[in-house]
Amino acid sequence: MGGMIRTVILSALGLSAAALALEWLEYQYVIRTLSTEFYIVILCIAFTALGLWAGHRLTARRQPAGFELNEAAMASLSITGKEHEVLQHLAAGQSNKEIARTMGVSP
C-alpha cells in the first residue's frame, strides 16, 4: 500500500513539475520562436510517458509463492504418485493425449 501511495505522489509531482515548466517556458524567448503545436506535442509525449510509468508501477504483478506438495492430503485421499503426476499435467493444461504421450501410456 505504501508503494502505491509513493507512486501516486511521484506521479502528481511529475505532472506539477511539467505544468510549472510549461508556464516558465511561456515567458521565455524560445516559446515565442517555436509554434504552439510543437510544445503541445512535447507536453503530450511527456504526459504519456509519465502515465505509462505510473501505470506500470501501480499494476506491477508479484510472482506467486511456489507450490508445496501436501503429503498428508495425498495420503488421506489415497492418491498415488502416478495419479499425482497426471493431475500435475492436467493443471498445466495438457490434453489427455498429451499426458498419455508424455507418460508413455495409452489415453
From TrEMBL:
<dbReference type="InterPro" id="IPR016032">
    <property type="entry name" value="Sig_transdc_resp-reg_C-effctor"/>
</dbReference>
<keyword id="KW-0812">Transmembrane</keyword>
<dbReference type="GO" id="GO:0003677">
    <property type="term" value="F:DNA binding"/>
</dbReference>
<dbReference type="GO" id="GO:0006355">
    <property type="term" value="P:regulation of DNA-templated transcription"/>
</dbReference>
<feature type="transmembrane region" description="Helical">
    <location>
        <begin position="37"/>
        <end position="55"/>
    </location>
</feature>
<keyword id="KW-0472">Membrane</keyword>
<dbReference type="InterPro" id="IPR000792">
    <property type="entry name" value="Tscrpt_reg_LuxR_C"/>
</dbReference>
<protein>
    <submittedName>
        <fullName>Helix-turn-helix transcriptional regulator</fullName>
    </submittedName>
</protein>
<dbReference type="InterPro" id="IPR036388">
    <property type="entry name" value="WH-like_DNA-bd_sf"/>
</dbReference>
<dbReference type="Pfam" id="PF00196">
    <property type="entry name" value="GerE"/>
</dbReference>
<feature type="domain" description="HTH luxR-type">
    <location>
        <begin position="72"/>
        <end position="107"/>
    </location>
</feature>
<keyword id="KW-1133">Transmembrane helix</keyword>
